[in-house]
Amino acid sequence: MATAFGEYENIVPLLAPFDRAGTLLETPYIDLQSAHRASFLLYFGVVTSTTATDTLTLTMEASTASTSNASEEAIAFQYRLSAAFATGNTWGAVTDATSAGVSLGASTVFDGFMVMVDVDPAAVTGKKPDARYVRLVGTHTDAYSVMLVSCTGIVAPRYKQTTMIVATVT
After folding, report:
1. How far is Cα 147 from Cα 141, in angstroms, rounded to an integer?
2. Is the Cα dihedral 123, 128, 130, 135 positive or negative?
3. Is residue 4 one of the residues assigned to a domain?
4. Which of 11, 17, 98, 164 is the most buried (most CB within 10 A)?
5. How far is residue 36 CA from its own chain's centroid?
6. What is the tens place of the pLDDT at every residue in 56-76?
7. What pLDDT does residue 14 have?
């Protein structure tokens, strides 16, 4: 039996597991030039808050440049929230998020969960015609004392290949 060994998707480590309480959650840019689709898979470990009203707001930014500059523009995206760790391989419904993003927390406990964020390159250029790069940004309130999170990029290239075109820009 043969395996594809990643020939169909470009799996890109974006953020190593790290406590991001008190810091901005910001992935490197993904270059959409050769992408059919791109997703960001956030995996949350322990998330601890001192209040019941803390929130983490995830937004997707499109840019014309591969480095942070004044060209970033928030864009709409789709996302799904997984079941809690070790409770089954189930995911919630695909949900549309506006350019204002999606807020997690307060009424949504997300420690031990994954969030899959998907972006369609055609929708990016439809909103911002000269955009080529996207990144995921998370801003949160200050009462989080622990927020362990990692992020993996999953890029579906236009053409299957054994050596992937570099998809990230640091």
Report:
1. 11
2. negative
3. no
4. 164
5. 16
6. 899 999 999 888 888 899 999
7. 94
Q: Quick: pLDDT tens for 97-139.
A: 999 999 887 656 678 899 999 999 988 988 889 999 999 999 9
pTM comes to 0.87
With a CB cutoff of 8 Å and minimum separation 6, the contacts of 85 are 112, 113
Question: The tokens of 107 are what?
Answer: 């009424």
- CATH number of the domain residue 32 falls in: 2.60.120
- Residues spanned by the domain of 51: 10-169
Q: What is the 3-state secondary structure (H, E, C) of the chain?
A: CCCCCCCCCEEEEEEEEEECCCCCEECCEEECCCEEEEEEEEEEEEEEECCCCCEEEEEEEEECCCCCCCCCEEECEEEEEECCCCCCCCECCCEEEECCEEEEECCECCCCCEEEEEECHHHHHHHCCCCCEEEEEEEECCCEEEEEEEEEEEEEECCCCCCCCCCEEC
